[in-house]
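Sequence only, no structure available. Ideas?
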Amino acid sequence: MQQTALRFDPETYEVRTLERDGKTLVYRAFEHIPYVQYPVHPIQKLSVYVPETFYEDGGSVNGYTLHTAPIFFPNTVGGYMPGPEEAPGPDFMGRTNASFYALLHGYVVVSAGVRGRGCRDANSHNCGMAPADIVDLKAAVRWIRHNKDLLPGNAERIISNGTSAGGAMSSLLACTGNHPDYEPYLTALGAAKGRDDVFGASCYCPITNLDHADMAYEWEFHGIPDYHRMEFVQENGPKDHPNLLFGKPPKMRRVDAVMTDEMERCSDLLAPMFPTYFNSLGLHTEDGTALSMNPDGSGNFTDYILTHVLTAADKAMAEGKNIMEEPGVSDWLTVENGKAKAADWKKYVAFRTRMKPAPAFDDIRMGTAETELFGSADQRERHFTEFSMEHDTSGHPALADAEQIRLMNPMYYIKDARADKAPHVRIRHGAVDRDTSLAISEILYLSLRAAGVDADIAHPWGIPHAGDYDLPELFAWIDQIVKE
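Reply:
I predicted one. Tokens follow.
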């Protein structure tokens, strides 16, 4: 593609008025701006949205002005598919998106389109495999800082936000700031020189730590053979890629199935692998108590996770919810005098139910979002764990490069002094979310805290795999960290 400039033009915009949910928003839209000099796909553009109030004499919102407002940096990555720019308004499910409310709250919004699995370049080669999505987001952050003297908002107060695979991208932004591992990819795109660290990261149910996610999933759901989930109906978009790129909410269908003998054998083998990995991390609770697992997977880590579930139950009851009348809750949760007293781990996991058969992410048969994520320029799918490579039944086994796997896992960078970590990270993983093990979010949180990051985690009551469901709380967190 043709070389592009990296300069923000503050004079090229539209003023728009939008009404949603009984609220009126007036804002400036600076749209579809290339953020790299040598884009390889049309999606590599970003848009900037600014409350129009900021341009009035003395204009401010919630104490923020044109040059002091934090920059809200959401991504629309889901399933590691391409994540296009998103204007204030409806999200791909038709609900009012976070950008609309962020502008109302007084933030500047920068929404970058990024590559994902399934993207092809002009020569029909894959160009969306790992680490394309995180590289594009880093390039967009560099663009923001490159234009800090022209761009509205405070370029030192960038807050990333994402859900699912997008939550994983937000966690990578938080953990890999300015690391040289990404420099060759950024240079090839002609990204601006400079920093790509962020000030804060909001991570909703991050589907991350992929090379250990299969063992974590089986540690949690081992012994539960049936699985239940919703799947995209493929008629909504090109084969294997129905998503928000194609203009209408995806249709879904319910799947209820039982694992095959082969899947159960994989579960039997994967489950006992997780304690070894977990113990290698040397994690501790906030009060310094060492967390460990026995070879059978038992130990105080499950008790620790349940403390967050009990906190979520207490919060729900304080909000007036009669949670003990919800189907199945009394089977695993004990409440005394209006407070959550205890929870049974195994019964809680059975209550949540299994969503994915084994292996959940690096399927030995290929065909998952993640095996496509780790493809190459000329090979659609590759394994990313030795286990699935050794047990492959697809007939075309191949293993992703070690570097490619490393670049997509924030855990490898948390203790790396060359990576500038975000000072603040907020993790939310719903109490009934089964897209990945609760352990994945917990060990990310604990590792960040051990590295000195102001990290926060919660498992909100009754929330499945979702994001942006608690925007008032998210914005209160952002206000607190940027104004402290």
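Confidence is low (pLDDT under 50) at residues 236-247.
Hope that gets you unstuck.
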